[in-house]
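Here is one chain, start to finish.
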Amino acid sequence: MAMVSEAKVNGSGAEAPAEVLPALAEKPAGLPPGKYALVGWDMDTTGRRLIDEICQIAAFTPKQSYSQYIMPYGDLNPGARRRHNVRVVTVGRYRMLKDTNTHKILKTKSEISALTDFLDWLEKEKGDGSVILIYHEPRRLSPTMLLEALTRYKLLDRFKTIVAGFTDSYALAADKCKSTVKSISLRVLARVLLDADTLSVDSALDRATAAYRIVEHLAQGEQQEVGAGGEGTTASKDMVETARLWARPVHTELEALANLKKLLERQNTFRPVFAPLLRLARPERKRVTQLRRLLADAGLLYDQLRDAWQDCKLQGLEKQLEALSVSAKEEDIKELIEIFDCHFDPAKEPKGLKPRVQNRTRGTSSAGETGDAEGTTSESQKTSIQNSPNKTNSDVPAAEPSQNPAPEAIPSN
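Its structure:
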C-alpha cells in the first residue's frame, strides 16, 4: 500500500501551519460566580487511548494531598513505563505494580475503589461550594479519560455534584507567559516561575502540585514579586477568580468526550485499510494515524469511499476526498487516494516505503511525556485483559486492538 509522502522529506512540511493544541484552540468558557475550592489534580495511565486504565490518581491542596496507585488489568505500554517509572510485575501467581527507580512494590487498590476514595476526599475539600480541578495538559486528555472511567463505574453523577469544572494551567500559562518563555512545559514553568530547578514530573502528585502552584503564581499578577508564590495555605480570592474564568465546565468536557467517541467510531470504519499499516515502524504509524484522522475529521466513512471507488474508480475517490481540501495538503490527498486505490484493487502494486531519517530526540509534552504511546502490550496484558470485568466492547468501539499499536492515543479534540 502506498505510504509515506515525501512532504517532510523535501522540506514542504515546513510550509504547513503549526498544529493548534486542543488546550489552546479556544478560550475556556469559565464558570459562573460562586464559592469554589481549588484542587491540583493529575493522573497516570497505562497508555494514552480512551480504553487505557488509570494507574495513579493524585490531588493537591496546600493543606493536604491525596495519592493512590491503582492495579490495572493490563500492563503499561512502553511509553507509559518510561514516563511514570512504574511497571507491572508478576511475583508467583500475583501481579503487582513496581517502582522502577526504587524497585519497591507499590501499594495499590482497584480502579473503582481508588475513584470512590478520590470522590470521598474531594467531597471533604469542597465544603459548601464546588471543586475546580487544576491540571496541566496541552491535549486535554486527562479530563476525558477521567470522565470515561467515572462513567464506566457509574460514578459520574456523584462527580458532577462535587466538581464544577477543570482549569488547564497550560492554557493559562500560554496566555500569560507567551512573551516571556519559549516553552510552557511543566518543567520549564516550574523552573522559571517557581524556582524549582529539580522538580520531578514523573509522579502524578508532583504534577498536580506544580499545576496548582503555577496557577497560584500567575494569579498574583503584579501584586507580589516574581518567585513569591507557593507560600499560601489557602487559595486567594485572585487565584479562585483566575481559575474560575479559565475553567471548562464538566458538561463541556462531557460534550468533548461524546464528540471524541463519534470521531473514533468513524476512524474505526477504516480499519480494513489502516490496520495493516499500523504494524509498520513508528514514523510510518504516526503518518498513517494523521491520514486516518483527516478522514474522520471530514466525516467520511469507509463505505462511502468503497462505493465511490466501485462506481467511478479513481474519479469517485477524488470526488469524495475533495472535502479534505480545506484541512489537508495536496500531498495528503494524493497519498490517501493511492492508499485506497491499492486497497480496493489488489492487482495494483503499492509504491515502496520511502526511507526516513528518524529524529532521535523524542518529543515530549508538558509533563515530559511523549506525544505518542507507541508499542504493544506485553504478554501478561494479553492474558490479564481477557479476565477484566470492566473491559467490554462497548467501552470505546473505535479503539485499535492491542496488537495494532496506535501511535496517537487519543485524537486531539
